[in-house]
Amino acid sequence: MKLNKKRSNLLSILDIYIIKKLLLTFVLAIFLIIMIAIIFDLSERLDDFISNNAPIKGLIFDYYLNFIPHFANLFGHLFFFIAVVFVCSKLASNSEIIAILSSGISFKRLLRPFILTAIFVGVVNLWLSNVLIPKVNIPRLEFEKMYYRNPYSNQFYNIHIQPKENEQVYVQHFSNKVNKAYKFTQEIIKDGVIAKKTSAEYIVFDSTTMDWVMTNYHIREINGISENIETGYEKHIDIGVMPNEFNLNQIKVEVLDYQQLNKAIAREELKGNSVVTELRIEKYQRLLNPFAYIILTIIGVALSSHKKRGGIGLNLAIGIILAFSLILMMKLANVFATNSTLPAILAVALPLLLYSIIAIILVRRTPK
């Protein structure tokens, strides 16, 4: 008997009723939007798939089957929020919330099943982002690369790489199509000062000798007070860097699980690559985004727990505007962090903190 009482206190009939409605609405919303997304995606890529003779089996199992968890996780918090607003508005329009609150149940107690569901979905999101989706993205991206136009081209400028502790390599731009780096500079440092500086108009990778060929080069060696300068048109050089290491945007964060992402961050920090900021942002997004489910859930319940003249439609409109504004703020903060000195963790956390304050204000102002 005591065990039954504990279970009833932990998860009451009301909790189960709301959780079932919420999960069912969320799954249905995700299912419908995924079907629409697949139709639009297929219509856009169909010509390329046909012209490249993409196999139907690979299209279904390698591409679209793996597309589903990727897309569902990408927009999960938005559609969970819509599900919260829809379910709560439906309860309010049917006067069920009035009956619940009139029976002596507090508004905080009413929030419990919604928050429990948000925590559950957030944990699933955490697992998907860091474990499952990186694995299923590998065949999806390989299929896309093989049978769809390859969108990859290196667009990074001012690339810095540290092959060794006392060595710095800089190129203004790298073309991955011809393995050619422009405005090349290599600095070798001894005892805190530059001992050798090599520069060239451009360098091209030689696949036969597995080194680089400099064009219009200038080498300056410093030994105390004496200097040795060498110039020429063409010369082979080993810089300790392979062509793929210049392809900073070749690091596909979508295929890196949590451990691999941490290793990539440590590796790019050693090289001094600016892409490390984007990797850090990706890491903190994966860790903190589950909190967006809880924050948006509290906002959704606070907005939708009482009747409005506009009904469910007005609640959905207000809710979607708030949800999209949060997504927009998160994107803007990430761009700001990439192009400034704002720490990556602050760029990810600040929008969530701001909307946490909004959630608290809305809960306090909600009629109880």
Describe what you observe in this structure.
This protein has 368 residues and is an alpha+beta fold. It has two domains: 12-149 and 277-365, no CATH class; 157-246, no CATH class. 62% of the residues lie in helices and 18% in strands. It is built from eleven helices and six strands. The protein has helices at 2-10, 13-51, 56-74, 76-93, 96-102, 107-147, 243-246, 258-271, 276-304, 311-338, 344-365; strands at 157-164, 167-175, 180-190, 193-206, 211-223, 226-237. Strands 1-2-3-4-5-6 form a six-stranded antiparallel beta sheet. A hairpin with a 2-residue loop joins strand 3 and strand 4 (193-206). Helix 10 runs antiparallel to helix 11. The radius of gyration is 28 Å and the shape is elongated. It starts with a helix and ends with a helix. The model is unreliable at 1-8 (pLDDT under 50).
List keywords for this structure.
368 residues, alpha+beta, 2 domains, six-stranded antiparallel sheet, 62% helix
Please give the share of residues in helix. Answer: 55-70%
Total E-strand runs: 6
Query: What structural class do the secondary elements suggest?
Result: alpha+beta
Oligomer: single chain
Tell the overall outline.
Answer: elongated
The gyration radius over C-alpha positions equals: 28 Å
Q: Please report the number of helical segments.
A: 11
